[in-house]
Design goal:
Blueprint (H helix, E strand, L loop, with lengths): L1 H11 L2 H11 L1 H11 L8 H17 L6 H12 L8 E5 L5 H13 L3 E5 L31 H11 L5 E5 L2 H4 L7 E6 L4 H11 L3 E9 L5 H8 L1 H8 L15 E4 L2
Parallel strand pairs: 1-2, 1-4, 2-3, 4-5
Antiparallel strand pairs: 5-6
């Protein structure tokens, strides 16, 4: 319902007014932004933090954005906090129309990191996954072709609103592209919806994740994703470790692992 309301506002009101209404529509986002502004531990100035937040709302007012600002800020803070001595690129798997990509690219540029964006750019692949209801009681399902953003469309949005100069795009299904990816990863953000896609991303990104690096999943509200992150056999047989601590599991959409 809220998503439909935002689309209606975008069609009928000036974009500057939409930006203000977006801020007022979610108090949790507003509090998260305020906390980000005054988080002195981040290695950027107050003005740079303010400019990021302003840009994030501007992007959300112009590009379809099925995420909250506080979810974006959680990964942005991770990007900005990567130690200078840590090797690795910043990864985003699953980018839809490029709203999150544009936001992450602004942070990656400040952190002097390359943002590697992996997506089919054809939407959700064919699947027969039954997700049932999520932890909030809402029905969840991902039909083939949904959440599609073409590569040209994504690049155009990032060029207009983000920093495309620090981005590299890898087009194709994860099963085809990730086996060829073999670079150190400082942080990874997965928003891929399907448990099969999440599993593939973890299999290839987690071994490349540097000590102290973080892996996020935007899909922690989905039962099949929860089962995967709790699956002892998967972690032992496919990754070679015991089940890691997963922060936020069974509590919120955005969950993460910190590699020790």
């Amino acid at each position: 319902m809220l998503k439909k309301m935002h689309k209606a506002l975008k069609r009928n009101l000036p974009k500057s007014i939409v930006e203000i209404l977006l801020v007022l529509s979610d108090l949790k986002d507003a509090f998260a932004c305020a906390a980000f502004l005054f988080q002195k531990e981040l290695p950027i100035s107050f003005l740079q933090r303010w400019q990021l937040i302003r840009s994030f709302y501007r992007i959300s007012a112009r590009v379809d954005s099925p995420h909250t600002q506080r979810e974006i800020l959680a990964y942005v803070k991770t990007i900005l906090s990567i130690p200078n001595g840590m090797k690795g690129v910043v990864v985003e798997a699953g980018c839809f129309k490029g709203s999150s990509t544009a936001k992450f690219s602004l942070a990656a540029d400040l952190a002097d990191r390359e943002l590697v964006v992996c997506d089919s750019f054809e939407g959700i692949p064919e699947n027969e996954e039954e997700h049932g209801r999520d932890i909030f009681g809402k029905s969840a399902g991902f039909a083939q072709g949904t959440y599609r953003g073409g590569l040209d469309e994504v690049k155009a949005n990032v060029s207009q609103f983000g920093k495309i100069s620090c981005c590299r795009f890898i087009k194709g299904w994860f099963d085809d592209t990730l086996p060829q990816f073999n670079e150190p990863v400082a942080a990874a953000y997965l928003d891929v919806d399907l448990v099969s896609s999440t599993k593939t991303c973890i299999q290839y990104f987690y071994p490349l994740l540097q000590s102290g690096g973080a892996l996020f999943s935007q899909d922690g509200h989905l039962p099949l994703i929860i089962q995967l992150f709790q699956d002892k056999i998967f972690w032992q047989d496919e990754i070679g470790i015991t089940v890691p601590m997963v922060y936020g599991l069974n509590q919120r959409k955005l969950i993460h692992i910190r590699k020790s």
